[in-house]
Backbone:
């Protein structure tokens, strides 16, 4: 699998000179499978440039996995070029809800007065899927979705292909109510998704100083990220979902803090930057 | 996915909630096996969680000698937590139990199943209180 990051920011887009190295677009990742599958993880504002790229490459089928429906993971969908093409087969997967169907919930945002066109009117051939409880396959990739700790229905995804595993676990507060260093792994949210992953892409929203004022908001501190990566025994870690107020230099300091807690070789932990490509 | 024994998020949250309550709480998985009880429950049962974890339904429904007010033994299917697991519906009732310390206590129990989805039961939770002996009717 080849991973490319198109948007790494959390909460709201943050363009500008202070974020130019790691980027200001919100969550969006492209995964290309070994059989040329096109999987998109979340549709933040990074989905706009990704959509243009996919159209240039004449991709015909796209599977979009939404972790949840908070706006920073959805706001790029309206400007995602493939959704405006009748030639595109778009499958949108997301967390199930007992309240409303996935398309109804997405249309809350993707409809007037918040957006000029209603979701049901887009030209692409769109199919909506509740993320199944059991693993399923798309081409050569086996996908698992599992609920994780974040306000509202939220899942993380694990993609496995050719013996390799990518875990995408963003918007996640695994330490809420749990001492990650002391807890049995059976009681750690998201543990099964990340366990022994070759690459873990994980939320890294808060510094240690910021976290106490944001307990319960659904995001971790750098110390939590380090503990979670260590407990899950992942190989490589990508710090993701950057706070919009964190400038490039602060993100690098957060990586240093994660490495201090995780205590592994520096090359095993990177800060997600727009344009970064990683082989899994 | 890698084979792990991670509990479902609903159970993780239920355990965390229970751990923060002084009110006794007892948590079992879908088979009825004990996966957690809090300090409040430890006091009433006179048994520490580390000693009681992984008890099967057949064990906890007998080791505490549950009975009716009139002394008749109470079957698993009559205990509110048993009802929640077997019939997958909420139940409430009075149960007499005998703690591991040998003391009989009269408790009032509310139990309900934990559904992650309408057709996916993950376990059940029981919340209970010690309750006074009934006042004898005037003869």
Residues:
């Amino acid at each position: 699998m080849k991973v490319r990051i198109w948007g790494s920011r959390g909460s709201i887009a943050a363009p500008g000179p202070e974020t130019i190295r790691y980027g200001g677009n919100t969550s969006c990742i492209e995964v290309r499978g070994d059989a040329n599958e096109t999987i998109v993880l979340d549709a933040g504002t990074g989905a706009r440039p990704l959509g243009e790229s996919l159209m240039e490459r004449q991709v015909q089928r796209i599977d979009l996995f939404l972790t949840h429906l908070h706006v920073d993971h959805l706001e790029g969908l309206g400007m995602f070029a493939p959704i405006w093409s009748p030639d595109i087969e778009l499958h949108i997967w997301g967390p199930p809800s007992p309240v409303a169907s996935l398309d109804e919930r997405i249309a809350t945002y993707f409809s007037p007065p918040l957006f000029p066109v209603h979701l049901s009117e887009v030209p692409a051939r769109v199919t909506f899927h509740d993320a199944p409880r059991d693993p399923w396959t798309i081409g050569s990739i086996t996908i698992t979705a599992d609920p994780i700790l974040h306000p509202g229905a939220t899942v993380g995804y694990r993609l496995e292909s050719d013996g390799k595993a990518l875990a995408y676990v963003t918007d996640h507060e695994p330490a809420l109510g749990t001492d990650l260093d002391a807890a049995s792994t059976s009681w750690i949210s998201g543990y099964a998704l990340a366990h022994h992953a070759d690459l873990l892409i994980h939320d890294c929203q808060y510094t240690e100083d910021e976290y106490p004022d944001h307990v319960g908001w659904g995001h971790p501190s750098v110390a939590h990220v380090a503990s979670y990566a260590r407990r899950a025994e992942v190989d490589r870690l990508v710090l993701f979902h950057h706070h919009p107020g964190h400038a490039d230099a602060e993100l690098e300091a957060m990586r240093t803090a994660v490495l201090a807690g995780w205590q592994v070789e520096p090359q095993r932990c990177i800060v997600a930057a727009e344009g970064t490509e990683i082989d899994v | 996915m890698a084979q792990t024994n991670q509990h479902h998020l609903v159970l993780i949250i239920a355990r965390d909630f229970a751990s923060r309550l002084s009110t006794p709480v007892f948590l079992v998985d879908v088979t009825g096996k004990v996966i957690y009880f809090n300090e409040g429950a430890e006091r009433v049962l006179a048994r520490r969680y580390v000693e009681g974890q992984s008890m099967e339904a057949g064990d906890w429904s007998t080791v505490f000698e549950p009975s009716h007010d009139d002394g008749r033994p109470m079957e698993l299917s009559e205990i509110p937590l048993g009802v929640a697991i077997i019939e997958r519906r909420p139940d409430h009732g009075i149960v007499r139990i005998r703690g591991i310390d040998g003391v009989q206590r009269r408790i009032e129990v509310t139990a309900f199943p934990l559904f992650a989805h309408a057709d996916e039961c993950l376990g059940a939770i029981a919340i209970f209180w010690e309750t006074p002996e009934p006042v004898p009717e005037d003869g």
